[in-house]
Amino acid sequence: MDFCESTTNLQLQPTLMELAQPESPQWFAVHTYPRHEKRVASELGYKGLEVYLPLVTRRHQWSDRVKLVELPLFPCYAFVRIQPSAEARVRVLCTSGVISLVGASGQGEAIPESQIESVRILLTSKVQLDPYHFLKVGQRVRVRGGSLDGLEGILVRRNGSRRLVISVESLERSLSINVEGLDVEPA
Which pTM value belongs to this model? Predict the structure, then answer.
C-alpha cells in the first residue's frame, strides 16, 4: 500500500495553525515530473482544484517541419490554489505526475497572489518573455558580455538600482558599479 492509499483511511491531524483559524485558499507551486505539467494541471482541475499553468507559444523546428507549440513558462511547475491544510496538500501530492509542493519539507510555501497576477498580466499582454536567472540581493553574480565580462561580485540594491560590489578583502575595501542594463548571472 502506497502513501496515497494509506492516507485516504487516516484521520489527518491538523496543525495548531490550522486549528486556530481557517485560512482562505492560497497559491502553491507544484513540482512535476518533466513534461507532465499539462497532465498534472488537467488532473488537479478534474479534482475540482483551481489550477494555473502559464503557457507560452514557441516556434519549434524539427527536421521535416516547423510548428508553434504551447510550452510551460516554468518547466516542471504548475500552480494550484488550495487551503493551507494537510488534507489539501495530500490531495495534491496524490496526483499522478506530482513530485512535491515547492517549499520547506515538501509542505509547500504560499505564493503571494500578486506574483501570480503579475505572471497573468505579462502573459495576456503578449509581450516577448524570456527566462532569466533568479537573482537575489546579496548573491554572488558574474557579468556576462561587454568589457566587464567575467567580473564577479555581490549583487546589492542601493537607491532602487542594482549594483555590483567588488571587494579586495585583504585591504578591507570595496567598489561598486551600477549593473542596470548589464547581463548578470549567478556565479
Answer: 0.70
The residue among 133, 164, 169, 163 whose CA lies nearest residue 151 is 164
Region at 138 (left for phi over 0; alpha for psi -120 to 50; beta for the rest) = left
Distance in angstroms (rounded) separating the CA atoms of residues 141 and 185: 5
Question: Which fold would CATH assign to domain 3-124?
Answer: Alpha-Beta Plaits (3.30.70)
pLDDT digits (tens, 9 = 90+) for 41-63: 999 999 999 999 999 888 889 89
Cα distances (Å, whole numbers) of residue 31 to 40, 49, 99:
10, 16, 5
Task: Write the pLDDT tens digit of every residue in 77-126.
Answer: 999 999 999 999 999 999 999 999 998 877 889 998 988 888 888 888 77
CA distance 133 to 17: 34
Closest C-alpha among 92, 102, 13, 6 to residue 47: 92
Spell out the domain ranges in the chain: 3-124, 140-186
Is residue 127 a contact partner of residue 73, using CB atoms and an 8 Å limit? Answer: no
Sequence-ordered list of residues with C-beta below 8 angstroms from that of 13, at least 6 positions apart, any chain: 86
In sequence order, which residues have a C-beta less than 8 Å from that of residue 57 and are 6 or more positions away?
68, 69, 70, 71
